[in-house]
Amino acid sequence: MHEESLGTVIRDYLTGEELEETSYEEFRQALARLFVEERGYPKASLAAKCGVCFPIDGQDYTRMVDLVASGPDGAPLMLVIFCSGEPGTYVREALAAARLYTPPAPLTLVTDTRSAVLAATATGETLGSGMRAVPFWDDLATLAATHPVEALPPDRAERERRILYAYSEMLSGGCCQGACRPKARG
Fold it and tell me: Is the pTM above the cut of 0.70?
């Protein structure tokens, strides 16, 4: 996802803190509002701009994801990625991110705020499409428990890292030359 600064500051819906407005921040804020106001998620269950961090070719790499919905125990239940195109085209990238998240999130949601694809992280099975696929808070824990996911063995984790890196950096031409994520530490 390519984000650019718009040179203004806005108030974050989830935290109330001021943050830099970017070309995609309004969509991230709209998603947070949808989850809270229409799907019943407690604000405290949602975290924005979370990093999926891993080494690639001797360098630390971070792929930011838009939202992570966690249960009362703090365990991630669903990873959410906003996309600026057809959600189905971003599912494989999002699955890799959810599988590499620590601990892995059982559910993966990709949305452009007009449509969505919900998938089981472990299998990649599509569980729903369209905005009706966005789970309600009251159903999320049960749905996540129905689709458990385990941490990947090292060889599979390495393949998922390569997939995520390729989708995020190689195929998209890189994201903002790093402007929307923390700088890699070498």
Answer: yes
